[in-house]
Amino acid sequence: MPARFMALTPMVPTGGPLSEALNYYCGTLGFTVEWRDDGGGVAGIARGDVRLNLVENENRQWIDNASFRIRLDDLDAFYAEIRGVAGRLEPPFVTPWGQREVHLIVPSGVCFQFYQTD
Description:
By secondary structure, this protein is an alpha+beta fold. It has helices at 18-27, 60-64, 75-82, and strands at residues 11-13, 32-37, 42-47, 50-55, 67-72, 88-89, 93-94, 100-105, 111-116.
């Protein structure tokens, strides 16, 4: 029997110092630190069932092409929570295929697409 995939934890470039990224992701987006290796410039963060590994890296090619989708149970509540944050935030909208989304490009340049399915 083939191995079963259990989880996905993307590596997200920080675009600057790890401490600044942690301040943003935890202080602004509500993640918590699960573990941290300052010597390696990496930390694991989580919010609900979503986990990310922040990697201290300023490679613009990686940052500018990094995009992640996160499914939420209440898009409007999340938008109200993060409205006015640093970064480029679009208000909720409906895609041509009928899905409600909020897009946020964080200060480093990484893009997050938050969405809700009914």
